[in-house]
């Protein structure tokens, strides 16, 4: 049953379609709110009215198969830059995350204003990360010098076969007219390449390995909790992917919930991750929720019914007093079904994915 304790969305299920145009108006406010399957709004950093230390831009990629997953992040959070690489080992049920931070980048990383082309780069003494996008291909490369036991982690991956549809959403905040979130999630791209770590070499192969992009630009309010779930793989001989999320900003105009079959989007309404609650009054997410028990993921229209069985909790806690981030990205398996836009019941079995609970103050 949907419950506010679980963080369920409760706004009316209105779904506004975005139309092509500028993202922001002449006052630096979000011109319109809603969703699309392509990035039809034009983002321009120079059009933002808020101070540069409040602007947040990031590119996040996740690539994996049934044995391993690698996550890359390059972000300019205004008063903090963050670059990280994570390795999830599903056979052993372990993870390693290494990050490097810098002070007050405020646009110096020059992250691209479009997700469809450009170069994102980060380099310091600890890590070198590059995302190059051109010609329908995405070349991801990373080196983290001291990743595990003094050994470097090196990754080279190419993503291709981008699906026809993606999830795009423009979200305002009710309590700040100059706060906004513009986000595209491209889920279910083909991945080839691999990584090395010490004596370990693992290759990602086309047909069994998939990658996704979480591309975000915006100005946020200070204190936010969000829920996000993704999955990608082959189901019933078809390419299947999904993006589920809520809790971030004012989503009354549209939710970001979609599933994709062979690259075609099917729009869902509001969702509830159904996370077992341990202590509803706890401030930290790992204490509030019993994250390693099965989650029951449902929607408000009776179209989505999934059980998420957790395997790895990739957790990260940073507390710098004014800057606090409490992250739990839980990797596991989805089983159940979803009803597509034409009424077809699509069965999901053993689909690998992740679902996260994040509380940020920054």
Question: What does this molecule look like?
Answer:
The protein has one helix spanning 285-288; strands at residues 21-22, 34-36, 41-42, 55-64, 68-76, 80-89, 94-103, 118-123, 127-134, 137-148, 151-160, 167-173, 176-197, 200-204, 210-219, 223-235, 238-246, 258-261, 264-267, 271-272, 295-299, 304-319, 324-339, 345-361. The chain contains one helix and 24 strands. The strands form three sheets. Strands 2, 4, 5, 6, 7, 8, 9, 10, 11, 12, 13, 14 and 15 form a 13-stranded antiparallel β-sheet that branches. It has a nine-stranded antiparallel β-sheet with strand order 19-18-17-16-24-23-22-21-20, with no helix packed on it. A two-stranded parallel ribbon has the order 1-3. It has 362 residues and is mainly beta. The protein has two domains: 1-16 and 222-362, no CATH class; 30-218, AttH-like domain (AttH-like fold), CATH 2.40.370. The radius of gyration is 19 Å and the shape is globular.
